[in-house]
Amino acid sequence: MRYVLLLGALLAGGPAAAAAQDRPLVVDATAGYAGLVDEATDHYFVAGGAVRKYLTPRLSVGPEFVFMRSGEEIVGDLVLMLTGNVVYDFKPFHGADAARVTPFVVGGLGGFWSRDDFPTGAFWASDPAFTAGAGVHGRVNDRVSVAGEYRLGWELHQRITASVTFELW
Questions:
Q1: Domain count of the fold of the chain
Q2: Which domain holds residue 74?
Q3: What is the pLDDT of residues 94-110, one digit of tens each?
Q4: pLDDT of 24-38, one tens digit each?
Q5: Beta strand pairing status for 121-139 and 144-154?
Q6: What is the CATH number of the domain that holds 141?
Q7: Would you call the peptide bond into 155 cis, given omega within 30 degrees of 0 as the criterion?
Q8: Residue 59 in contact with residue 107, Cβ under 8 Å?
Q9: Among 144, 151, 146, 139, which residue's Cα sits nearest to residue 162?
């Protein structure tokens, strides 16, 4: 069932995106911090990326892949997330009416895979996942922007990240 949900989340924007070929396609590269809540907060480095298609000047959809790693040793705990995201910009972020600075909200559904290292070996687990949060984009030029955001998600975590967005067309 969880894989059906993941596939549905990733494909949700497909037909609408195909009908909006004049809208930009963007790629986000993200890095930051995540705190996963267990008995105590576990600290993770976050790296990831997303591809989003703008369906309107304010609404974009697309998949996001996130890698989270804890520990300083060569093999540490890690988390992989794959979600289908929807991003809503409160001001138009592309085109003639584009704002230089734009607040946004983001939400995503997908899958969460984690590996924990124990003295007896590694243990893998998977669960459905979601994230929700908000941030602000700032345009550097017509094709590049930077953003900062805060998200909450399940498996229970919070993350604070910065990203660079490249508009492909």
A1: 1
A2: 2-129+137-167
A3: 777 778 999 999 999 99
A4: 899 999 999 999 887
A5: antiparallel
A6: 2.40.160.20
A7: yes
A8: no
A9: 146
Task: Identify the residue with better confidence: 60 or 125.
Answer: 60
d(CA 25, CA 135): 19
Q: Mean pLDDT in the chain?
A: 84
Give the integer Cα–Cα distance in Å for 79 and 126: 10
Find out whether 146 and 165 touch, Cβ atoms under 8 Å: yes
In terms of Cα–Cα distance, which of 34, 91, 29, 99 is closest to 64? 29
CA distance 81 to 64: 8
| Mean pLDDT comparison of 28-32, 54-58, 70-74, highest-scoring range | 28-32
Strands (E), 38-100: 41-54, 59-69, 78-89
